[in-house]
Amino acid sequence: MTTDDQERTAPTADEEPKSPEDELRVRAVTRLRKRADFRTHVLVYLLVNTMLVIMWVVIGTTMFFWPIFPILGWGVGLAANAWDVYRPDPVTEDRIRREMGRLRP
Question: Is a pLDDT exceeding 90 seen at residue 41?
Answer without folding.
Answer: yes
